[in-house]
């Protein structure tokens, strides 16, 4: 068996085309251009790259885009003051604070300052609560992208045993809720999990987001499993995931590559949330 590649770039491109068409209609019919504001605190090179990607993607989609840069020494109050101003700005439908933040800042307090209606990262407590209660709200982008990839690849999650190796609020916890809402049976593993290999080896769908190159080896994967690699690591100047791709591919039925798997979907699901926020603003 050689696993079929789940091509995130191709799926993201298809979603992007849909967004372009819907955006064109929104502008022509209602005179509303989706607007995204991104706040970057500090000079982390990786974060700067991600902000530039969002800027370029916004331009391709004909979105309005604003970015705000604060130094590493920024105070919480000045960031929250900006967020409160953007909350009231009708040109801005989505507000994103690029993570991680410098350690002296209270991440939860800053994210909670964003209006839930403009929380396109889906990290506000209200949107997280709505996800758990299976109510309409913004869903964090990586979990939303993973589910969209599975759906568009005609992979059913209902009744499947899913193991997620991550418990962060960006990936593991919201993905757990999203999959449970879609009738999967979900196990979440983390650094304190006993015999993590045992859990992973029984998964119909295995999601790895541990940040360790080649952490998932073939002996940890069930024959015919679907393997979703969320990890992004740099080894000897090259990007790789958390999965030993070449060997696991011989055992899995489907697998995501790195790069070109989950990453492109995370970025485009953000933009889909911005478009949704712009549409919802018409109902106010």
Note down, in words, how this protein is organized.
The protein is an alpha/beta fold. The protein has 2 domains: 82 residues, Leucine Dehydrogenase, chain A, domain 1 (Rossmann fold, 3-Layer(aba) Sandwich), CATH 3.40.50.10860; 121 residues, NAD(P)-binding Rossmann-like Domain (Rossmann fold). 41% of the residues lie in helices and 16% in strands. The strands form 3 sheets. Strands 1-11-8-7-5-6 form a 6-stranded parallel β-sheet. A 3-stranded parallel β-sheet has the order 3-2-4, sandwiched between helices. Strands 9-10 form a two-stranded antiparallel sheet. Helix 2 links the parallel strand 2 and strand 3. Helix 6 packs across helix 10. The chain is globular, with a radius of gyration of 19 Å. It starts with a strand and ends with a helix. The mean pLDDT is 96.
> What is the CA-CA span between the terminal residues?
53 Å
Helix content, binned percent = 40-55%
Question: How many DSSP E strands?
Answer: 11
Average pLDDT confidence is: 96
Alpha-carbon Rg, integer: 19 Å
Number of domains: 2
Secondary-structure element sequence? EHEHEHEHHHEHEHEEEEHEH
Which geometry do the CA atoms define? globular
Strand content: 15-25%
Q: What is the class of the largest domain in the CATH system? A: Alpha Beta
Contiguous uncertain segments of 5+ residues: none
């Amino acid at each position: 068996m050689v696993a079929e590649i789940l091509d995130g770039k191709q799926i993201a491109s298809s979603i992007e085309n849909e967004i372009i068409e819907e955006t064109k209609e929104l502008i022509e019919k209602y005179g509303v251009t989706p607007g995204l504001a991104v706040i970057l605190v500090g000079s982390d090179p990786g974060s700067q790259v991600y902000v530039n990607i969002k800027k370029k993607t916004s331009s391709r989609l004909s979105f309005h885009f604003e970015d705000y840069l604060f130094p590493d020494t920024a105070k919480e109050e000045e960031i929250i003051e900006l967020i409160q101003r953007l909350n009231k700005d009708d040109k801005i439908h989505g507000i994103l604070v690029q993570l991680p933040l410098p350690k002296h800042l209270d991440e939860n307090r800053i994210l909670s300052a964003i209006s839930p209606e403009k929380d396109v990262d889906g990290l506000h407590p209200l949107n997280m609560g709505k996800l758990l209660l299976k109510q309409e709200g913004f869903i964090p982008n990586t979990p939303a992208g993973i589910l969209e990839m599975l759906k568009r690849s005609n992979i059913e999650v209902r009744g499947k045993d899913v193991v997620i190796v991550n418990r962060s609020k960006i990936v593991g916890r919201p993905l757990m809720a999203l999959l449970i809402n879609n009738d999967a049976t979900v196990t979440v593993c983390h650094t304190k999990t006993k015999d993590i290999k045992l859990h992973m080896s029984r998964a119909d769908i295995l999601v790895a987001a541990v940040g360790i190159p080649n952490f998932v080896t073939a002996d940890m994967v069930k024959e015919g499993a679907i393997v979703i690699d969320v990890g992004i690591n740099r080894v000897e100047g090259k990007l790789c995931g958390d999965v030993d791709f070449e060997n696991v591919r011989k055992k899995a039925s489907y697998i995501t590559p790195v790069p070109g798997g989950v990453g492109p979907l995370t970025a485009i699901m953000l933009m889909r949330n911005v478009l949704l926020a712009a549409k919802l603003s018409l109902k106010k």
